[in-house]
Structures are given as C-alpha cells and as structure tokens.
Design goal:
The chain has helices spanning about 10-25, 40-55, 75, 80-85, 135-145, 155-165; strands spanning about 5-10, 30-35, 60-65, 90-95, 125-135, 170-175, 180-185, 190-195. By secondary structure, it is α/β, with parallel strands linked by helices. A 4-stranded mixed beta sheet has the order 3-5-4-6. A two-stranded parallel sheet has the order 1-2. The protein has a two-stranded antiparallel sheet with strand order 7-8.
Length: about 200
C-alpha cells in the first residue's frame, strides 16, 4: 500500500481537490499543519503516526519524495530480504557523513544553534528516499513523541538525531547500487533511489 502525506492549504480550491482525491482514491494522509517545505518533519511524523495506528502487518516502510525521485519498486522487491532482514532494526539509504553532515547556519537549510548546537550532524540518510523495517518506523515514532528537540530538516531529524538517540542499535545499510545521486544540470543535485 502507499499513501501521499500532505499538510493543509490556505487555498480552498486546493483543499477541495484534496478532498476529491481522497474520496476517489483513499490514498492521502493529511496533517493539521500548513503544507510548507519547512514542515517536512511534520509530514514524516504524520506518516509514522498513521503507520503506528493503522499499519500493523507490513514488514517494511519506504519513505520517498514524490516530486523529484523515481523509485523502481520491482527492482527492489526481489532483493528486499537481502537488503534488510524482516524484524531487524535496519535502515537502508544513501548516508551523509561528516563533512556532508555540516550544520549550515545560513541559507536554505539553516538551523540555529538554539535548535541544534553541534557543528555537525550524526550520520543520516538522504531525505530523497530511505527504506526501513517496521520496527525502525515504530522506534522513530516513539522517539519523536518523547523528545523536545525538533529540527525541521526531516532526514537529519529522523534518520540522524533520533536514530542516534535510540537505545536500540539501528544499523545503516547503504549499498551504492540501490541508492545513488545523479547530477542534473538544470536543478543541481537530484537524489534518486533506484535498483540495478
């Protein structure tokens, strides 16, 4: 099963179209926040909450961005158990490690010292797409509702800071042939999740 996670719109026409889409396809999870780039962590939290409340049988959870990522589901299905064993505390993704994990204090991805004091983030997954076992999704949801620290950059927050704070050992699997970056001259670095 799949679902699109969205926030609310200030535009009534957009809200009406979302309601029509939900009625027609039943594939939208809508949060109570304004749908904005700086609310991506709230979108992912909403997804994890929905998974916690309503998805009891899946063994895996896949989070992907829907605006700039192509995902080859058929290429992954046969390899899934080798990539992450069901029931494990595993997370498969392209990881960022220092120096990529530098905290920017200015610009598009700026985070103030009051929100995160260290100069580097822990190892984290690229937000374009990451695959996890249901156990990891449940652990990240549990940690998110218990912590008071919040960072709007979703990949850093969920797969870096929260994973790092878990009392369970969550292991990263970062096979290059599943998770790769492609450079697109028109849009800069475009993250793409794929299988070979």
């Amino acid at each position: 099963a799949y679902a699109f996670v969205v926030g609310c719109s200030k535009n009534n026409t957009t809200e009406n179209r979302l309601a029509e889409e939900f009625t027609l396809h039943q594939d939208i999870i809508q949060g109570t926040f304004i749908d904005d780039y700086r609310n991506i962590s709230l979108k992912v939290f909403t997804a994890f909450k929905w998974i916690h409340l309503y998805c009891h049988t899946p063994e895996y959870v896949l989070k992907i961005d829907d605006n700039d990522v192509f995902f080859n589901i058929f290429g992954l299905l046969d390899r899934l158990p080798k990539l992450l064993s069901p029931g494990s505390m595993g997370l498969a993704c392209h990881t960022y490690v220092y120096p990529e994990g530098q905290v920017f204090r200015d610009g598009r991805w700026a985070v103030g010292k009051e929100n995160y004091a260290p100069d580097h983030y822990p190892v984290y997954c690229a937000g374009s797409g990451y695959l996890m076992t249901k156990h990891v999704a449940e652990e990240l949801y549990r940690l998110a509702i218990q912590t008071t620290q919040y960072i709007w950059i979703e990949d850093v927050y969920f797969t870096g800071i929260l994973v790092n704070s878990s009392s369970h050992k969550i292991h990263f699997n970062s096979p290059a042939h599943y998770f790769a970056h492609y450079y697109n001259a028109n849009s800069g670095l475009l993250n793409s999740l794929h299988s070979q």
